[in-house]
Design goal:
Radius of gyration: 30 Å
CATH class of the largest domain: Mainly Alpha
Structural class: alpha+beta
CATH architecture of the largest domain: Alpha Horseshoe
Mean pLDDT: 92
Number of strands: 17
Oligomer: single chain
CATH topology of the largest domain: Serine Threonine Protein Phosphatase 5, Tetratricopeptide repeat
Low-confidence stretches: none
Distance between the termini: 68 Å
Strand content: 15-25%
Length: 575
């Protein structure tokens, strides 16, 4: 006659969980004090996705035989799966107390400590597990992940590479190696890791997605699109792939492919503001209407000239990013700069800037390069680092033109350590208002007795619109309130958007319809330009975020918002 316990084990190992469960239950009905049966029945619950239920059976087994290391170790494993990290730590420590050579228990202790937010204790436990068992792949993988998540990207890459030497087909480690290398700034190494992962497992969408995103960061846009399209063949629901295809196609000037990609992303994730922003920005056109008013803004021009004259000496090398007409580059040269490198991404605008520079007699000191600043080569284009960076890469919402990634890259690669940047910083402020006239078309519904709602699709529904409160009928319902200060000399990295809670106390009764925000731009520690109502820098106007519905408010009320801070936008969502 066969042993029921062995029969149940065979079912369990073969994945026939219902048959195994029936045998275990029958055995426990006959004798509930069977620790091995209780232990295996607990593991079966874990296999079935019920770790919290399963650990109860393992605890009963431990009560019957408290000296079983395997019971304690598996209890720790199930506690981890159930999200009960403190209980997992206790079980793993008890297992190690019984058997100091229990490598699996040390690994589980590391997992539990990591869940509790104790990275030092987790790292110590993983390293203990690796000492106890030479070549313990799982523990080393967990250690590498811990180091990567803690920001020690180079150290993580070392661990990934070591375990891949022993197990080169470990796709998860290969992809995570790519992530660690990418985060440490080694894009070429990351591309190599993702390429190998895609070669080893061609149907793994994640490998192609990460490869495409890395190509995109490297500005290898055609290769990015090819890799991302391969990712979508294996997983058509990857919003990030559609978005990156759209962004890469836009960089290549392929508006048709970009539009189709952004529309696909919007269909998959209509709730994501960055998706709607990308599509709306593309559909609404890329030619700014503010450029000539900006050039005519004499308060802005005079302030930049004053800041440049303070910062420049006869030995100063200046990098002017997004030179446009070349105005600020010529101001720098007139202020006495030794040399000015002015870059402009649009070839036609760059060519015109060269003509203007030559016509004004500065061709011997100003070099105009038809590239983005992120494409400049320090040796061949710059001829050495800059002493001063000028980057008025701004819009009404402050950072929509890419000021943060642009300044991060320029200060890291193209400027000397401690180089100044103009502008130096900005303070974002906001206010709650009523805007009755503009509310009629935000969103567009009915006008003059006609339903025009279908026309609303042409409205730019990006993170914010524009308004000039000096010229618009409005009612102020709150004080001007600070939101966020940004130091361009030490620009934040908001590649992954950050969120903060923000509240606006109401000071006047009325109908809240919009949040209007603007910024105070500090060119240096003394020269400030405001884009607010009545401010000196008038060409930008103010940015407006519309409330989804009008709200009647009274003094003492407060409107709460979630502020999203991203590399290229600031957005306010009413709560």
């Amino acid at each position: 006659m066969s042993d029921p316990f062995q029969t149940a084990l065979q079912h369990q190992q073969a994945g026939r969980l219902n048959q195994a469960a029936e045998i275990y239950q029958n055995m426990l009905r006959g004798n509930p004090q069977q620790p091995d049966v209780l232990h295996q029945f607990g593991l079966l619950h874990h296999q079935a996705g019920r770790p919290a239920e399963g650990v109860k059976y393992i605890q009963r087994a431990i009560a019957l035989q408290p000296g079983q290391t395997a019971y304690l170790n598996n209890a720790a494993l199930l506690f981890i799966a159930a999200g009960q990290a403190k209980e997992a730590v206790r079980a793993a420590e008890q297992a190690l107390a019984l058997d100091p050579t229990a490598a699996d228990a040390a690994n589980n202790l590391g997992l539990a400590q990591a869940m509790l937010g104790n990275p030092a204790a987790a790292e110590a436990a993983y390293r203990q597990a690796m000492r106890l068992r030479a070549g313990f792949i799982e523990a080393q993988f967990n250690l590498a992940n811990l180091l990567r998540e803690g920001g020690a990207h180079a150290a993580a890459a070392v661990e990934y590479r070591q375990l891949l030497e022993r197990q080169p087909q470990f796709i998860g480690a290969r992809i995570n190696l790519g992530v660690a290398l990418e985060l440490s700034g080694d894009l070429d190494g990351a591309i190599a890791a993702y390429t190998e992962a895609a070669r080893q497992q061609p149907d793994l969408a994640l490998a192609h997605l990460n490869l495409g995103l890395a190509f995109q960061k490297r500005h290898r846009f055609r290769e990015a699109i090819a890799a991302l399209q391969t990712a979508l063949k294996h997983d058509a629901g990857l919003v990030a792939a559609h978005m990156a295809i759209g962004q890469s196609a836009r960089e290549l000037g392929d508006s048709a492919t970009a539009t189709a990609a952004f529309q696909a992303a919007a269909k998959l994730a209509p709730e994501l503001p960055e998706v709607q922003e990308a599509l709306s920005a593309l559909l609404s056109g890329a030619i700014p209407g503010w450029h000539f008013p900006m050039l005519a803004d004499m308060a802005r021009n005079d302030a930049f000239q004053a800041a440049l004259e303070k910062a420049i000496t006869p030995e100063t090398v200046v990098l002017d990013i997004g030179t446009g007409s070349g105005l600020l580059a010529m101001m720098a040269a007139r202020a006495g700069a030794k040399r000015v490198i002015a870059c402009e991404a649009h070839p036609l605008i760059a060519g015109t800037a060269r003509e203007i520079v030559a016509a004004n007699g500065y061709a011997d000191r100003i070099q105009v390069i038809a590239k983005r600043s992120t494409e400049l080569d320090l040796a061949t284009d710059m001829g050495g680092v800059a002493d001063l960076v000028v980057a008025e890469v701004l819009d009404a919402g402050l950072i929509g033109e890419g000021m943060l990634p642009t300044s991060r890259d320029a200060l890291k690669r193209l400027a000397k350590a401690g180089a100044k940047i103009i502008p130096a910083s900005a303070q974002v402020v906001a206010q709650i208002v009523t805007l009755p006239q503009q509310r009629q078309v935000n969103p567009l519904r009915s006008l003059s007795g006609f339903d025009l709602s279908a026309f609303d699709k042409f409205r730019n529904r990006s993170a914010h619109g524009n308004v000039r409160l000096d010229h618009e009928a409005h009612t102020v319902l709150s004080e001007i309130l600070p939101v966020q200060r940004i130091d361009f000399a030490n620009p934040p990295d908001w590649t992954r958007p950050q969120c903060l809670a923000w509240s606006a106390p109401i000071t006047r009764a009325g109908t809240a319809q919009a949040l209007v925000f603007w910024f105070e731009l500090w060119l240096d520690e003394a020269i400030m330009l405001s884009t607010g109502p009545g401010g000196a820098m008038r060409h930008w106007g103010q940015a407006v975020c519309w409330l989804p519905a009008d709200r009647t408010v009274q003094p003492g009320d407060a409107l709460d918002f979630r502020v999203t801070l991203a590399d290229t936008y600031i957005d306010f969502t009413a709560l």
